[in-house]
């Protein structure tokens, strides 16, 4: 026994060792495949990328005029609320050069490139603001459209788009083999519209617009530069060396200070954006799950996020007056969503004149939707009524027929009737099959009387064909199965 145990266990150990070897080889092959697929270092060209970015930093000559034209096109698109026109302006905008230059100079410790990038960034911003301001001063269209309003407050999605777009831009510029990928296309969505909106705020004297749009433009620029800096360091771009150690130390301090100047505010901004987005999402969830009242329709929800942590949720209803106890019940539910510092205000206009155009349009939409639903329900009710009427028409008035037949045919004990659908070459025929139960010993002499009943049923029921079956049923034999004695057609 003791000698056989090791011998029996040897194949199992070999099989387990072989399985683990196969799994290790498969895992290693998969890891190498993923590594080769995602690796970008082999396709990188740092020196060519550095020169390419440096060439696009300067704003003069053609670049300035292209920027002016693209800003004008984007301003027109925002003014007429056309997303397609704004996208067209993004395709020709040269905004990315100085922003990529800031991230690059931070990554390779190039202080001269940093100063040059910041100077041209200021030129780019000034030209863009002046161009958009002049356009909005001259245009007769002064109403703020949704495309403009969307650029006055940054959200978490704007920051994410800027950062990911910055990664895409620097990677596209870093390829050895250049293609038709324009680095600025993925980013212009987060840069050009805020610049145009800032010009609109100056032209119309709405400084909240200007500050909000400038705020959005600034944090997007910061995250684009940050994405460039991280990519440059990840790809190990050649770092600039200084001959003078003291100068090198001073340059590193400058770079570190600039890096902190960029990262710290952007981190704080990112935290604020995430917090505001989370708060807004909780408010939307609260409204969706709790704010409703039969007889009144919510036509507007306005959440005001104040800096002093006191927030307001203004709800505009149209319809029946909402009792105070209902509003109080809504306020008590705020604690379930961590929204204790929000004040709910309910506004109920008593007439259309008290509502603004947006609220009226929403009310019209709600009314139109209700009318469509009502029409759909009425059509369904009409169809059901028609189906019910047809079904009622198909029902045979057998009780009435039996009472009438008894008057002229006293020997008839009872009748049984059913509709039958018969298929033939011409289509379908509906027949009435009728069983006549007679209180007789046999059916002799019943044919004339049966024919009379058949003709009467055809007239009475407005039918072309009636099939009759004569059967015998004596009163004493009701419990027994009747016997069919013949059929009369």
Secondary structure elements and their pairing?
Elements: H1 4-38, H2 46-55, H3 62-79, H4 83-92, H5 96-108, H6 111-138, H7 146-149, H8 156-173, H9 185-188, H10 192-204, H11 207-234, H12 245-290, E1 296-304, E2 311-319, H13 324-332, E3 342-347, H14 357-394, H15 398-408, E4 412-424, E5 427-438, H16 447-461, E6 466-472, E7 483-488
Parallel strand pairs: 2-3, 5-6
Antiparallel strand pairs: 1-2, 4-5, 6-7
How many domains comprise the coordinates?
A: 4
Number of strands: 7
Radius of gyration: 43 Å
Number of discrete helical segments: 16
Lateral strand order in the biggest sheet: 4-5-6-7
Structural class: alpha/beta
Low-confidence stretches: 1-10, 179-183, 484-489
Assembly type of the shown chains?
single chain
Percent range of helical residues:
55-70%
Main beta-sheet strand count, sense and barrel state: 4 strands, mixed
Q: Note the overall shape.
A: elongated
N-end to C-end Cα span: 95 Å
Order of helices and strands: HHHHHHHHHHHHEEHEHHEEHEE
Q: What is the beta-strand fraction?
A: 5-15%
